[in-house]
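Q: What does the predicted 3D structure of Histidine kinase look like?
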Amino acid sequence: MMYKSTLSVKKEIALHLLFWVIWVYFTLAVVDANGIHFAEMDLFSSTWCITYVVTFYVNYLFVLPKVFHPFKWIKAIAGLVVIFLFFAALRYFLEQFLTVQLFNVQNYNPGTGILYYIYDNTFYAARPIILSSAFWLIVLLVRLLDYNKYIIEEQKNTEIKFLKAQINPHFVFNTLNNIYSMVHFQSPNALPAIEKLSSIMRFTTYEAPRNFIRLGEELNYIHAYLELEELRHYDKSFVSWETTVQSDNHEIPPYLLSPLVENALKHGSYTAEIPIIIRLSCNDQQLDFEVINRIGNQKKDKLGGIGIDNLKNRLEILYPEKHTLQTTEQEGLFSAHLVIYFQ
């Protein structure tokens, strides 16, 4: 996605017009008993205004971009000297040369020393230089904040895509291992397993790339994954579901719940007598998902691996301070409990 600042050139021009309207009001307008009217402009008031505006934009368009690309103090000092000399030289040209040629008048008396001229113009030059610098820095700050927000968003999207890319092969790898075992032992469940794998691949291809999917789609994916395990173990009763879902149309990121189920299948020990317990409740306020399994005898159950680690990272990105993920071990049982707060 190409970066496009919210502060467009048109908006910047509009800000300049607003600035000059305000400047004219506070500089040239006179408020008295007769209302608001503009002070009469004599010749040297006009030349001063011209010098002011030209200096403002020379500093804004040329000096400041050079000074801050990249910023160095020596460049800042040099830029300040240059723009001041520009102001003094332009004013001298307009008021000590051009007006003499056109109207035979000049602003400063003949014989005015150069040191006094520079000293006197220090005060007059300060206003356009300070105002143009402040205006330019404000515009720069707005654009930097806008760009920083864009970069953070892009980093978030990039990290999420990377995490998804890690998760997808992990699920496929486990599933293919299961099917390989069935084919090797010539199990009649091999073809149904391939059908379930096809369902998983459809999810991976069409649903997983999306940022959010319906809760029902995630649950369908989990069911397909569990059915593959059932086919491999020839056991259809090692999972106990307890669900209270007001609506499965709530939108969640893909692969949000499945890593907890996969963790139980990978590290747990399960039978029909002591099944994996999956509890799910969901309403408008929160989603509550818990997976409980017996800890395997030969492999310690833990909240680890690519899928779970990625889940923790994604939760930090997608639901900062709006989720809890807790794991407990008690009496030989392992529990992973995820709560997401929608409000």
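A (community wiki): The structure tokens above were generated from the sequence. Helices lie at 9-28, 43-67, 73-103, 114-184, 190-207, 215-233, 258-267, 305-318. The mean pLDDT is 84.
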